[in-house]
Specification:
- It is globular and about 40 Å long.
- With 142 residues, the protein is an alpha+beta fold.
- It contains three helices and seven strands; from the N terminus they run ββββααβαββ.
- Helices cover 24% and strands 37% of the residues.
Length: 142
């Protein structure tokens, strides 16, 4: 069962119970980026509501977003479905970025490249995130 929370226009929370009994909490948060556009960021936490909200609200290292127990790939696959759906419904001058903290998530999110996501690099040339822009509204300037 999926629960959708639309508290603010700059925040979307999705909570879903997975077939294995775990709870997936998926967060989309919008920030204003330099260049007069909005950037959405994604957060995924596998655990109960209180832990997930504490992690989301405080981004504490104490409550890291580690993958717990069996079925974590199931949660990642479910999250990919929501991420792709969200990316296809973005508005004008919006961008979605997906980053990771471990290799397991990095490998799972590589499938997003099939859906138009591209790489973001840090100063030393390492891939730190994948991103997608609403192609209907953006113009690429090289």
């Amino acid at each position: 069962m999926r629960t959708l929370f639309l508290k603010r226009p700059s925040e979307l929370r999705i909570r879903e119970q997975l077939p294995n009994g775990q709870k997936m909490n998926l967060y989309f948060v919008r920030h204003r980026a330099p260049g007069n556009f909005y950037q959405w960021q994604v957060g995924l936490y596998i655990g109960d509501r209180k832990e997930a909200n504490l992690w989301f609200n405080h981004h504490s290292k104490k409550y890291g977003n580690g993958i717990k127990g069996d079925g974590s790939i199931t949660a990642l696959r479910c999250a990919l479905k929501y991420i792709i759906e969200f990316a296809n419904n973005m508005g004008e001058m919006e961008e979605l970025t997906v980053s990771w903290h471990d290799e397991k998530r990095k490998r799972a999110y590589q499938y997003l490249r099939r859906y138009g996501f591209f790489d973001y690099y840090d100063a030393s040339g390492n891939i730190i995130a994948l991103g997608n822009r609403n192609q209907e509204y953006w113009e690429w300037v090289d």
